[in-house]
Specification:
It comes from Actinacidiphila bryophytorum. This is Transmembrane protein. With 142 residues, the chain is an all-alpha fold. The chain has one domain (3-141). It has 4 helices and no strands. It has helices at residues 3-31, 39-70, 75-107, 117-141.
C-alpha cells in the first residue's frame, strides 16, 4: 500500500478511535452525573454531541475509505475499513434515528421506561472500537 495513503488512513483511524472513546465512553456517562443535569437536559446535550460526532465520523470515514482505495490496500485492510463504514451507517441510519424519535417523546414530556435502544447503540460503539483498532493495526502492518 502506498505509504502516504497508509499514513493518512492510519492517522485518521486513530483520531476517529480517540473521538469515539472520549465522547461515548467518557463524556456521555459523566454528563448524567453532573449536578443539575436532568434526563431531558442530558438528552438534549447528547443529541447535539452525537449529531456532531456522527457528522465528523462520516467525514473521517470518507477520508479513510478514500485513502484505503487510493493506496491500493490489501484485503486485510479493506475488509475492516468497509465493516466499520457499514457499522457506522447502521448505527446512525437505524439506531440513532430510533433513539431520536424516542428522545423527541421524552423531551415532549412523555414518561417512558429506560431505553433498550441505548444498549444497542453502546453495543455498536463497542464493535466500532474493536473494528477501528483492528483497522489501525492492519494499516500499521500494511
Amino acid at each position: 500500500m502506498n505509504t502516504t495513503w497508509a499514513a493518512t488512513a492510519t492517522a485518521v483511524t486513530f483520531i476517529w478511535l480517540g473521538m469515539v472513546l472520549a465522547i461515548s465512553f467518557l463524556e456521555t456517562p459523566l454528563k448524567f452525573r453532573a449536578p443539575g443535569v436532568t434526563v431531558p437536559v442530558g438528552l438534549g446535550i447528547g443529541r447535539l454531541v452525537f449529531r456532531a460526532l456522527n457528522s465528523v465520523e462520516a467525514v473521517l470515514a470518507a477520508v479513510v475509505l478514500a485513502a484505503v482505495l487510493a493506496g491500493g490496500a490489501p484485503a486485510g485492510v479493506l475488509g475492516p475499513a468497509v465493516a466499520v463504514l457499514v457499522l457506522l451507517a447502521v448505527q446512525v441510519g437505524v439506531v440513532r434515528r430510533r433513539l431520536g424519535r424516542r428522545s423527541d417523546r421524552v423531551l415532549a414530556g412523555e414518561e417512558l421506561p429506560r431505553s433498550r435502544g441505548h444498549l444497542a447503540y453502546v453495543g455498536l460503539e463497542l464493535a466500532k472500537v474493536v473494528l477501528l483498532v483492528v483497522l489501525g493495526v492492519a494499516l500499521l502492518a500494511a
